[in-house]
Amino acid sequence: MKTLIELQNLAKEAEKTKNIPKAIYYYKQLYEITRKPAFLFQLGYLESLIPNHENSVSFYEKYVDYNPDDTIAYYNLAVEYFHLKNYPKSILNLKKAILKKPDFLQAYILLGYIYEVMENHQEAFRYFQRVLSIKPNYHLALQGIIFSLIKQKLYDQALGECEKYLNLYPNDRFIKNTRVQLLIQLKKTEEAFSEIKTLVETDERYKSFENYIHQVQERREHEFQEFLSETQKKLQEKLASLEEANEETNPERKTYLDISLLSLFSGKKEQAIEYLQKALEQEKIKKDK
Question: What is the DSSP-derived secondary structure letter of residue 135?
């Protein structure tokens, strides 16, 4: 029979070499022998890497029974419930964490995203604002606020937040394109024309609209993955999408805008500018009437 030291060395070696099932096997033995809660925490973390979220939850729940003041454990437990789409349990554990640690930045960010997924955009907005009170100008929170406003159809406010964001992060292509979509939504055709013309002339990376949307989704997921890695290593939920435009009152003008955007994302720059100019002319005709 192996000694505790031998078991600990075997568990650490298996973890170091990323043999997670073997590490779990040895940590389970260590817990059965010692009944030390620290091994429950480690088992919860390792199960999350497989991933086996149900097992991870089970170990973390047992751990917090022993250590009800461990804010990181509540946070990790919330992440596992988030993976399982058990949002009420995730929220419950995050609120336990911030009750004990009111400046727990990661917990507020995750709360914002959970409420965004649940389409409770007012609550999402509130928690993203709370993040900014702890860490001003944090880009994930600023993006969250923009999309919370879009989902509430508060387009003027969302546009203002885009402009504030771009003052801080002027090279963010993702928010630049969001701003253009908002300008079109608000019928600010001349400004939209100018912005898209600049994008067409300076950005060679457009292939298709579908490709762009896919890139948007990948970017938001990647950035949230990086954020979660501060206390956990992964998160695979897609977090937001752009608001679809409402119908325009002028069908012909809307058609020109649609063709222009389709041309833009298909790489047909000259055609995109041509149809934007036509949309602009329709807007002028409408104003003259």
Answer: S
